[in-house]
Write a structure and sequence with these properties.
Elements: E1 4-6, E2 29-41, E3 44-51, E4 66-73, E5 76-83, H1 93-98, E6 102-109, H2 115-122, E7 129-133, E8 150-156, H3 160-173, E9 178-185, H4 194-203, E10 208-214, H5 230-239, E11 248-254, H6 255-267, E12 275-281, E13 301-308, E14 311-318, H7 325-332, E15 349-354, E16 357-359, H8 367-371, E17 374-376, E18 380-382, E19 386-390
Parallel strand pairs: 1-16, 8-9, 8-11, 9-10, 11-12, 13-19
Antiparallel strand pairs: 2-3, 2-7, 3-6, 4-5, 4-7, 13-14, 15-17, 15-19, 16-18
Length: 393
């Protein structure tokens, strides 16, 4: 695009069929009450929120979308993004008329040293209130015609979360669809949604195939024992999952696994438009937004203009600070949307109207969005004296 200067560090994003997918809308927070906290493993829980009837439309979603959670812990605001793990609820006309609330569920796995994930395991209780952002993401957009389609999901650890919702949707929307899951964990005790997956297999015995790969536990089949590396993945594609029999691939996990799967699938002839991915981590250290920046008298600055909710604000950013558009915007618009601040979730997406930026990383935007001028503000650094971005477009 003419207003965006690509950096060599920008990673390619998946090409998805999006003709009938959702139109991205600007994310907004609402306060929701926690209905339940269900243990999944020793270090993972499913958190379910009650959605009041008057907010049901705001939280209508597709399988595979995510929400950002916002709360205050140890005196500081904390935001984390989590995929929705349950398929969208179908509301009957009677339920709508009666004002029946709906539900949203996410799965939270404890990260070593993770402030929010540790609190979710030890301190979060039913009745607590948390700010929950409206659903975002295009992981499964355009997946409409499922008759006689074979969908394969490859997940590691908590990467199973969006695939749980996807599996239910694929299997319930068509009586002829099939779903295969290749799911890797350290041991059986680490498998999230183990009973739910078994129930799914029992309900659709001829249409569901589950392959559990355990890196630290011996399985009967040698190919399912050990870490998924290139050799093991190629063997799995040769003896367990025939790529020629698969219509769509969905990958969710750490960057290393996703990259490996994409490279091997491409090498065996799978076209890129049939492979979609979502990351739950890039392997980098967490990025904190809104680090303090002060403008000193006489130093060279760039002007950043931000439009959000129809209101325009201007902020000066020191050239030497090399700060992101989001970081600068938060000084004058604390309500600027963001979640991961690492270029993964896409919550901070905005369109460059004037000027130019360079993006450091991009794991969230589609190629056509980039062509239309959209950027991730958490990764965008101004390269012009005046840069104008619009969150509302």
């Amino acid at each position: 695009m003419s207003l965006f200067t690509s950096s060599s560090a920008v990673r390619p994003t998946p090409t998805a069929v999006r003709s009938t997918g959702p139109v991205r809308t600007r994310a907004r927070f609402h306060t929701l009450a926690v209905e339940s906290v269900r243990p999944l493993t020793d270090d993972a829980v499913e958190v379910t929120f009650t959605v009041p009837a008057d907010l049901a439309d705001d939280y209508d979603h597709l399988p595979g979308q995510y929400v950002a959670l916002r709360t205050t812990l140890e005196g500081a605001e904390v935001r984390r993004s989590y995929s929705l793990c349950r398929a969208p609820e179908h509301r009957t006309a009677e339920q709508v008329a009666a004002g029946t609330p709906t539900r949203l569920s996410v799965a939270v796995k404890r990260d070593e040293g993770g402030l929010f994930s540790t609190w979710a395991q030890t301190g979060l209780r039913p009745g607590f209130e948390i700010d929950v952002m409206s659903p975002q993401g295009t992981f499964t957009s355009g997946l409409d015609d499922l008759d006689h389609r074979h969908v394969v999901g490859i997940a590691a650890g908590s990467g199973i979360t969006p695939l749980m919702a996807l599996a239910h949707t694929v299997l319930t929307r068509s009586e002829t669809s099939r779903f295969t899951l290749l799911y890797t964990n350290r041991s059986t005790l680490d498998v999230m949604f183990l009973e739910d997956l078994a129930d799914l297999k029992d309900r659709y015995p001829t249409r569901v195939t589950l392959h559990h790969v355990l890196s630290r536990e011996q399985r009967t089949a040698p190919v399912l024992s050990g870490r998924i590396d290139e050799e093991r993945l190629r063997t799995i594609l040769r003896v367990l999952i025939d790529p020629a029999d698969v219509d769509e691939w969905f990958l969710c996990g750490p960057l290393s696994l996703v990259d490996l799967c994409r490279e091997v699938l491409a090498d065996v002839g799978v076209e890129g438009q049939h492979v979609r991915f979502e990351l739950f981590t890039t392997g980098d250290e967490p990025v904190r937004a809104a680090r303090p920046v002060e403008v000193r008298a006489g130093e060279r600055t760039v002007r950043i203009e931000v439009t959000l909710d129809g209101v325009s604000s201007t902020v000066e950013s020191p050239v030497d600070a090399h700060e992101t558009v989001l970081n600068a915007a938060l000084r004058v618009r604390p309500d600027a949307p963001f979640a991961c601040a690492g270029g993964v979730c896409g919550t901070c997406r905005a369109r460059v109207i004037e000027g130019s930026v360079t993006m450091t990383e991009n794991y969230a935007l589609e190629p056509d969005e980039i062509e239309r001028g959209y950027v991730l503000t958490c990764q965008s650094h101004p390269t012009s004296e005046r840069t104008v971005v619009d969150y509302d477009v």
